[in-house]
Design goal:
2 domains; 356 residues; 16-stranded antiparallel barrel; 3 helices; Porin
Length: 356
């Protein structure tokens, strides 16, 4: 009964979000013929999703609602926050019996951004740690191509994936051929509910080459509590303009291990094939992790390798079906990993547009 109650609650929230999105979309259509100016309007965005996963024969049900709040104060100050409401349900005896679980809540970030000038933005509050590609850019369910995170994704983001403190970021230099971006931060230690963070300092820098649409970057972090360690990442992202290829790769190192992952995704939308097939995206990822000093600390304790293959189907840019199969190999256990589900992205203003 508890499981049914939790699912009903999630269904109600999901239905309300979809109805609000439909109302916002209908309002925009009704005013499309009139000239208007949105001004600095607060927006709620985010996504909803449902993933059915089977990992090593153990099934889980994972409904998720992830709203993102954006509140501008003029043209230089922005309040932004992302909160996750997610259910995690497993069978009582893991492989058989009724599903039980609960709905959890987590504040991913809640921050104030101040655009000081064209080269510096100051962020204060709880912010996502800018380490590598995954934590800041690929975590949301409506963005990631594969629903399982890479094996080494926890390197550089302990304890909660976020920092509490100050971050500076911006564009150091920009020309028609390239852009240099940077970020630097310091986070205090916190055990406050929904504001958990570790004492860390670090930064990220990358160069984006405009014409090939290629980014190459690196991240460094010093973990400053308990055992002090260095964390390092190097990454590359390439999205050529002439094709729908998306290639990403990353190498991560920490005291308890190092690893890499390489992911390629290709949408069939530019191929001369029937429309039904042009909505398909094929994804592949290979990865390896090498344990050091006993591993652990949110990482495997033994050497592990895994490959994944996925097929996603886009009904629209903001609504898709997702599926994947993976196989992991280690001295502890080899396992099959299946995922199937759906994700939906929504955006709507918190009040109507303002006419000129």
């Amino acid at each position: 009964m508890r499981f049914v109650h939790q699912l009903r609650r999630l269904r109600f929230i999901l239905a309300a979000a979809l109805c609000l999105h439909g109302f916002g979309h209908m309002t925009a259509q009704d005013t499309s013929d009139a000239e208007n100016h949105a001004g600095h309007v607060p927006v709620i965005s985010g996504g909803v999703g449902y993933i059915h996963s089977v990992d090593g024969g153990v099934p889980t049900l994972e409904p998720q609602i992830i709203p993102v709040l954006l509140v501008p104060f003029g043209s230089h100050v922005l309040l932004e926050s992302r909160t996750e409401f997610f259910g995690f349900f497993q069978r009582e005896s893991l492989t058989y019996g009724p599903f039980t679980g609960k709905v959890l809540k987590n504040v991913d970030y809640a921050q104030i951004d101040w655009l000081a000038n064209t080269h510096v933005m100051v962020t204060a509050g709880k912010y996502l740690l800018p380490f590598g590609l995954y934590n800041e850019r690929l975590v949301p369910i409506w963005i990631r191509n594969l629903q399982d995170a890479p094996i080494d994704a926890n390197i550089g983001i302990l304890t909660s994936g976020a920092g509490d403190g100050i971050m500076l970021r911006g564009v150091a230099q920009q020309t028609p051929n390239y852009t240099l971006q940077y970020s630097a931060y310091f986070s205090a230690r916190s055990s406050i509910n929904q504001l958990q963070a570790a004492r860390t300092a670090g930064g990220d820098a990358s160069i984006y080459l405009t014409h090939p649409r290629l980014e190459i970057g690196t991240s460094y972090q010093r973990f400053l509590q308990d055992r002090e360690v260095n964390n390092v990442a190097a990454y590359v992202s390439w999205q050529p303009a002439t094709t729908s290829l998306d290639l990403k790769a990353e190498y991560d190192y920490t005291h308890t291990g190092n690893g890499y992952w390489l992911e390629t995704a290709y949408r069939f939308d530019k191929l001369q094939i029937p429309l039904l097939l042009r909505r398909v995206q094929a994804v592949g990822r290979m990865q390896q992790f090498f344990a050091l000093n006993g591993g652990g600390n949110a990482l495997p304790r033994v050497n592990t390798q895994q490959f994944d293959f996925g097929l996603n189907y886009y009904f629209r840019d903001n609504f898709r079906l997702v599926s994947s199969y993976g196989r992991s190999f280690s001295s502890q256990q080899d396992a099959n990993i299946w995922n199937v589900g759906a994700t939906y992205r929504f955006t709507l203003p918190l009040w109507p547009e303002r006419k000129k």
